[in-house]
Amino acid sequence: MDHAADAHRTDLMTITRYVLNEQSRHPESRGDFTILLNHIVLGCKFVCSAVNKACGSSKTHRSCRGDKCSGKLSTCVSIKGEEQKKLDVLSNEVFIKALVSSGRTCILVSEEDEEATIVEPSRRGRYCVVFDPLDGSSNIDCGVSIGTIFGIYMMKDDHEPNLDDVLQPGKNMLAAGYCMYGSSCTLVLSTGAGVNGFTLDPSLGEFILTHPDIKIPKKGKIYSVNEGNAKNWDGPTAKYVEKCKYPKDGSSAKSLRYIGSMVADVHRTLLYGGIFLYPADKKSPSGKLRVLYEVFPMSFLMEQAGGQAFTGKQRALDLVPKKIHERSPIFLGSYDDVEEIKALYAAEEKKE
Ligand SMILES: O=P(O)(O)OC[C@H]1O[C@](O)(COP(=O)(O)O)[C@@H](O)[C@@H]1O
């Protein structure tokens, strides 16, 4: 057998090994980040397993044994026959417990909880984690890929943790990522030095590096937006989508691909290129997606992969959120595609 191919198969780069390697470049590192990430990875493995075990309306879900089966994946039977819990509620509990028990966090913001969780002093560390434990949960019952999104900040100095520790611009994040629960379970991570993708090998129970150094194509052929909202879009968004469909410069039209599950739409955008848009519209002037745990982590990954992320007014990662569940319009993806939408908004601003 070819020596290099053999090494590729046997010299496994697990996510822990990868992060340990990265951290060893910082001599002051005490391994805290690796421990935190291991707890996030544990949460992802749990949710992946819960999504796979849960019963669904199609009888194809293998472990549907619940006698109280609702027939819905979103209300699966939880582990060991406990009372039925919605999958997003269960995922939230798992992540909160995993993060607190890491002993490395001080404040947590979850999409599921109105208030931030301040970790009790005896279990505190220096990291602040913002996350959506199960994004796209409205898609669960039809088996569409869904995911967990997370971003990590470091507390500025030693003080009692408070909301200011997470109300920081996205550019201050130390790391961000998502885990997609689809035909395979893929964790995409950036610690600020590029983007890497790891796939869960179920037989090993380990995430293995399968997509090293992901770079988004400079320009793409796909646009991704909910066109059901088109009648309420502002001028620049409407013009941009028109341009995608009917380009006047002789280039080919872009194809529309919209799943309606952010992790899946962004994952495709990252790998194939193109642009993902969730703009403001007349009904939702701030758009739909949440700044801290949707817009920021995905924007961080896009920039790290060579793309861009824009809110319609500014670079997304420069935004300073005032509330933990704040929303923002977002346009993210290939560098050239985002340049085009930036130009349209700049032209509109000039007119005003
Ligand atoms: O259905 P719409 O309005 O196109 O929204 C789709 C977006 O909403 C989300 O599902 C988030 O909404 P939920 O938090 O209600 O799941 C994203 O994953 C996705 O990008």
From TrEMBL:
Keyword Magnesium applies: yes
Annotated catalysed reactions: beta-D-fructose 1,6-bisphosphate + H2O = beta-D-fructose 6-phosphate + phosphate
InterPro entries assigned: FBPase_C_dom, FBPase_class-1, FBPase_N, FBPtase, Fructose_bisphosphatase_AS
Domain Fructose-1-6-bisphosphatase class I N-terminal span(s) in chain numbering: 13-212
GO CC, alphabetical: cytosol
Domain Fructose-1-6-bisphosphatase class 1 C-terminal: 216-345
Family matches, as Gene3D superfamilies: 3.40.190.80, Fructose-1,6-Bisphosphatase, subunit A, domain 1 (3.30.540.10)
Cofactors: Mg(2+)
Main localization, broad class: cytoplasm
EC numbers for this chain: 3.1.3.11
GO function term, MF aspect, one: fructose 1,6-bisphosphate 1-phosphatase activity
Record key words, sorted: Carbohydrate metabolism, Cytoplasm, Hydrolase, Magnesium, Metal-binding
Family classification: Belongs to the FBPase class 1 family.
Designated name of the protein: Fructose-1,6-bisphosphatase, cytosolic
Species the sequence originates in: Turnera subulata
